[in-house]
Amino acid sequence: MIKRFFIERCSWIFLVLFLQLLLVFVAYIDPAIPLTPILYIAFLSCLVFIIFVIVRYQKETKFYKSLQDWDPNLDLTTIIHAESPFEQIIEEVLSDQTKQLKKEAAVHFMNLEQEKDDLLSWIHEVKTPLTAMQLIIDRLDNETIKTQLTHEWLRIHLLLDQQLHQKRMPFIENDLHIEKIAIKSIIFAEIKALQSWCLQKGIGFDVDLEKREVLSDSKWLAFIIRQLLTNAIKYSESADILIKTYQQDEYTHLEIQDFGRGIDPKDLPRIFDKGFTSTFQHRDNGATGMGLYLAKKAAQSLFIQIRVTSKPQEGTTFTLIFPKANEFHHISSM
Q: Pick the residue with more confidence: 62 or 267?
């Protein structure tokens, strides 16, 4: 490596030495210039230059000595004896490493895509026996067992539905169809799907829909409402859930209010974080911390604002604020 270092810097090394020899030669042929002081100056200059070269050698070759630790498969012998300058060697090494990392990233991406497709396929396959189970449960005569099985079936169904939408979330823009939709049909469809759970807990609904149409995507809006309703039902006991729509400042609002255990004030800023579960009852093993996170992500793609107010032991109110038509025009025209 020392030989290579000097070979690549021989031009400016010879230049410095030439300048010193030139200075001594001029002092030798010119009687007006004292030779001894010039020789002393040239000697000090050469000494300083030698120290400088030694220091630069230590600094500039330190990187190449560390390459072996950075990548054990790197052939340092090839680098040391390469015909390229050190700067070009750096570019070649980094370029090779970048290409290798890109190849690995492409392989990982393909594997993740395959895993996602396999999981989506599995979810769709599982829906078939779930449908059969529902038909079997509906034929049961024992109402107690029927209610319990229906509740457990619903839990599995909701978890699979959440997982399905989670995998679709990165590609939600390709799945949107913006149109005017009847909010009443979506709300009542979701309530009907959850009625067995509500009957088990003694929960009813008070629905007041002043505004009956909103501009949104029906499938993803239903998913958002489903997450908010399941959250309200889960943390409520024997109380009505209030659902209403109204117009305020030219925006349509949808409120879902429950009278359950509420949310601790210190938890409010974090309820939409991925994987966050309440610290109020942190040992609640049924919470996944994904429902509100996914609802928030879907709402952002639909330009829907979600606001939440809550008081512990008094209940929680989630408010969906829908965009105006002109704010959604560029998406609805896609």
A: 267
Cβ-Cβ contacts under 8 Å for 20 (sequence gap 6 or more): 42, 45, 46
Which tens digits make up the pLDDT trace of 27-53? 888 888 888 888 888 889 889 888 988
DSSP one-letter string for 251-269: EEEEEEEE-SS---TTTGG
Write the CB contacts of 182 (distance below 8 Å, at least 6 apart in sequence). 212, 213
- Tell me the β-bridge partners of 255: 244, 319
Q: Any idea which fold 180-332 has? A: Heat Shock Protein 90 (3.30.565)
* CA distances (Å), origin 145, targets 113, 133, 196, 237, 285: 41, 13, 12, 21, 23
* Element containing residue 74 per DSSP (H, E): none
Instruction: Please state, in angstroms and rounded to a whole number, the distance separating the CA atoms of residues 122 and 118.
Output: 6
- Could you give the residue range(s) of every CATH 3.30.565.10 domain in the chain? 180-332
